[in-house]
Fold:
Amino acid sequence: MTESAATAIVIVSHSRDLARGVAELIAQMAPDVAVRPVGGGPDGGLGTNLPAVRDAVTELLDAGHEVLLTADLGSAFMSAEIVVELEHRPAGERAVVAVDAPVARGTLAAAVEAQGGGSAETCARAAKESVRGWIDALEPVVVPETRRTAEPGAVIRTATTSGVRLADPDGIHARPAAAIAAALRAGHAEMLVDGRGATTLMELLALGARGGDVVGLSVTGPAPEPVLADVVGVLTRV
Structure:
């Protein structure tokens, strides 16, 4: 793990094991992202530890990162917000952002965005967008629009292919989904799988695609062919 991504993540949780578990998952899927799990109270039991959260943020800022804080429950998010206020930097300096989103799903989505070079702000939006997969079961909420766009003046084209058989017995699970989402982001592209939106990590996982399924792909962007080739490579590799 190189910790070379511009944006780092601090996970604020009431549980040490929960924070460490989310960090362990991120290490597998976004290995270049610096993650600091800060879980549990000062005595090691359930609770939050504001000084430890601030220490983690300060360390990452001093190392040259922007920092995104995620949290599991209300008081943990309050601690994150306090640290954002304490670490407020003038405009143009490295950002510190707190986001209120599902701690596992949201932090994972943010980490994939960070792995692709996202800023703290775009990682926060990715965390909020992660609720799309189950938003129908919730009260109506406003999710910021984060669909990517190409550079101004770029010609947008679409490349398609059909008959792609998923080689991995587990289908599109977390690791290939992260690789595909990163390829799409790098190519400023969006994708449909059998007509369904499948650009973000959570959209890909929500497909429920299984090993042996045969799918059609449509990639739209300024240079869709190499992106499509990368996606096909991931899906057909065991």
User: Anything to note?
Assistant: The radius of gyration is 18 Å. The first helix runs from residue 16 to 29. Helices lie at 16-29, 50-62, 74-86, 103-115, 120-129, 174-186, 201-206, 224-235.
